[in-house]
Write the structure tokens for this entry.
Amino acid sequence: MNFNASFLKLNRGKTFFQTLVFLVVVFLVSALPVFLGFILKLVNPSEYGINQGIKDLEITYKELLFFLSMVLALFVLSASFKYIQKKWMKTIFVFMACLYLFIACFLILADIIYYLIFSYRLTFSVVQTVLNTNLDEAKDFIKLYISVGNSVTIILFIVFMLWLVKKRKWFVSFFSTRSFFITALLFSIFGIIDFATITSTHPNGLNNIRYGDIIAGYNQYLEFNRTLQTEKNNYQFSKEYDTFYKNDTLQKTLVLLVSESLSKRHMSLYGYPRKTTPNLDTNKSIYVFNNCVTMATLTQDAVPNLFSREHLDREVNLITLLNKLGYTTWWISNQSGWGRGDKTIVAFAQLCSQNIFTDKFSDDDKSNLSRHYDEEILKHFNKAMSESQKSSRFIVLHLMACHFDYDKRYPKNRNFYTSVPPAKTAVSSKKTNEILNSYDNAMHYHDSVVNQILTIFSKHSQNKNAALVFLSDHGEELFENRNFSGHTYPASRLTSEIPYFTLLSDDFKKNFPEIETNMMARKNTPYSTADNFFTMLQLLNINSKTYNDKIQKNGFFDSAYDSTHPRMVMGDDYSTMK
């Protein structure tokens, strides 16, 4: 007796029970990241329990709808095998259902691996990071985070898929039974009604299904980029731009120096035992702020939102606004990703009057293989500052700074630290020491580059109304709480806290004394880069017919600045973080 015949004979009276067992298994698979995460937090809380609460480990309506969507795909398979006679039609439906189930299982796999590495569930921001990663960065990532557990998980997934292919005749027979067809139909009808009901009260369609929110986030991301592209081509501007105006006729220079992956805990400027920032430590001209956080812990979220009034705001952005007000805008970057990755960041750069990327290989996967260093932007910045000033100007400098691999961020002759680092860590090994020394060396080199930038700024800002704002896009975790280094979602205090300082020319202090007074009073005042849009407008003395109240309350150096509003980091309240 062949296998299929014995299966049908064996289960004539048991197919309903087997169907229920099968659907329970499908539910367990669909929610496997939740169950696995819950077990890992119980077994090893020091490794997987650092995030606040357990909201990421709850079965919600999103998880249930995702399960029901998988049942719907299984119902399509059942209907195809049982009732569709035309071969071409059956092939199409079977292919589409199998493709959805494969993608669903792949997302579950990615979710599990992400949780094993970062102790959190998969989100669109993570997917966006992957989409914006070139081959070189991918290799660095794999080298840094590959582990036995991740490798075993991938192997088990491959074995599982091969097993499904091998047992395909068994599944065809099972899906063709009346019990499975009727049960799957009832679950599918319930799922469709439930999805429609929830969507009527919770908009955004697919955003209501687990992993569907990734698609919704991607669509929002594409729409935002399309808006930037239309502005680049000089058509279809929002009427919101017309509400902003210059409040004086002075020519100004504002430099926004955006660094990368800086941990305050590894800067002697903020108390680290090693003198990793000797030049900043002794600079008496800068105003240093101690209580600043980013609004996002991933670069592709953190940097674009420096120029937006709100998260992915499609109404107005700072670059286009300044262009319309007659400013000369510059973007000088040592970051990779021109063309392929970091598309939103590149779109902002392309809005500027001048945009320069130092990486010669920035349009292909060889990006950053040449070990170009941040000092390469100095000549371009010097040129931008020394040019005859015919209008006010806004200059963005974007550094690679301390992004992993850390040992790629400084020349070999700057390998300053080789002894046991003074940092307090949850784990200690030769590898962690090497990584921490590389990071501290990158920070030491970064300090020298920033010092040269400040020197150029000071040299060319004499008798000019000039201001410079320095910040990091996000912080960095360096083995403080677990065996992990890097930055990711969700945010923690380590990856949310950032260094922040300013530098003003003498003329700027003279013309805007209240700003300097407020800077001196803001040393320990809470601040978030979510307010950067309004802070830039305040420093440039740009007002609005509609938004003056927000500029005053959200501009960091305004006397009316409201320091009590919540500081949200990728949707989480910083005050509740650990």
